[in-house]
Structure formats: C-alpha cells, structure tokens
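dumping this here before i forget
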Amino acid sequence: VAVTFASSSIYALVALRWTWSIFQREDVLLRGGADFDWRQWLRTWGTVRPGIGSALVAVIAMMALQLSIGPTLKDMATHRIMLTHQLLLIAMPAAVIAMLLSLNFRRTFRLRAANPVHLALAPVIAVSGLILVSCLNWWLLRFSFFRATGIEHGKILIDTMNSLGSFPSILAFMAVLPAVCEEFLFRGIVLSGFRRDLGRWVGIAGTGLVFGIAHQAPIAIVTVGLFGILLSWMALRSGALLVTIITHALWNGCLITAAMGKLPAWLFPPDDGLPKPSVIALAALALPVALWFFWRAAGTDEDEAAVERGMPSDF
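structure:
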C-alpha cells in the first residue's frame, strides 16, 4: 500500500508540475485553437532545447512501456527480449520524443567527439568505482529490506546469463547493449532536460535517482543511483555520450565477468564478498585521482556552461 501510494503520488506531482510549467508559457496561453503547422515544425526541426517536461515524458513513457509491454515478452527468446526491451522500450521513447519536439539531437544526446584523456580514464573510473560500490552493496545486503530483493535480482541476472549462453553473447546483450540504450535515454534527453530547468547539480542528482529507480530494485536505487550520478557528472564534464557509454559498458562487463567467476577472487569475490583491503584502499585512491584528471581535461559542454553563466548560446 505504501509503495503504491508513494509511486502514484510521485506520478501525480510530476503531471501537475509539468502542466503548471506548460501553462506558464505565453505561447500556450495565447495561441488559441491553432492547428499544428507542419511547415513550421520542419523549419524549426532540430533547434529546440529540451526541458524538464520532455525529460519526464521520456521517463514516464519508458516506464509505462515496460509495465504494459514488458510482461508480454516473456515467451520470446532471451536475446530477442533484450533487444526489444533496450531498443524499443528504453531508447525509442527518447528518440521519438526528441523528433516530435524538434530537439537538437547533437546537443541533447551529446553526439560529440570525446577527449582521448576522458576515454583513457573511463576504465579506471569504472573499475575503481565498481569496487567501492561492491563494498556498499555488501553492507546493504546485511539489511533484510535490501537482501530479499537483492538476491532475487541477482537470480534474474544469472538466469539471463545462462539463457544467453556464450560469453561474447552475454557481454553484447547485457553489457554493451544496455550501456548504449540507457545512456541514450538517461544521459541524453533526461540529463539535458533536468540540467536546463533544475541546474547542474540538481540535474545530476535527479538523473542519477531516476536511473536507480528505473532498475526496479530497492538496492539498485542506492548503488545504481550513485553510479548514475557519477555518469551524469562525467557526461556534463566531457560533453560526449561516448565517454559514459564506455564507462557504463565496462562497469556492466566487469560485474558480469565477476558473477561468472572469470575475475580473480581478490578483486571481485564471488557471492557478494568483499575485495581485499589493499584493493579497496587502492580503489579509494584511484577513483578521486582519476576524477580529478577527468575534471582537468578539456571537453566541458560549452553550450550548457554558457547557459549556466547567463551567456548567449546557439543551443
């Protein structure tokens, strides 16, 4: 009852907030009963900057599709379920909304060339961050509230891996494909919309929270949410979606490889154990150092930085 009430309240507040923001716009209040002008839509296509409304619509559409269509996919082959789930239920809502709202694809989805320094630091950030989050995961599993859903979520992952069969297929469908599609949605239209209307840091935190909630497990709201915050900061700092896609894919790949027992036990112990203290200490040192070099490297999203400073931007 509490979960249902809370989720319904959140959806209601989101709908009210979005409706309120729409009716504060002069072009909505004064447009009258004008029909849709497709010529104007074509002329302005690719010039609009996303806001919180478009971001929330993309998230709600994704969740609605998962709740309505997701259960109907259970009789399909596992690889087809993964393809349908990622491409049609996660990436497609973002792409369709961006097209309908005439959003600028290049800036909304950060389709820019990445700084080689950022790409080189992505593996360090992914591995060291995963080691530290695995420690947090180990601690959270001590609580019964997180343990039951965490174990159930782990069993689903193991069953999915067993159904996919070969190791390359597992990595392709469970590491690379989710990284591409989820980054396209969350570090694309969601982060861009939140960033514009809520500011840099609230936008980063909000995107991470939504990213954790979307994984539909209480423990994921904490662990995956923190990872989402890290990815959101990296996306804003680098200005290139490719950087977060690689980081996300490496994170997923290490997690899957460890679950299959293909990594040393001292690095990622099986059965949610803790790494060696020396490994934890090294990760705790490597992560902030890597983030500092990441921050120092060129590649800040200048369009969004200009908007934050109140300067004109061609966004």
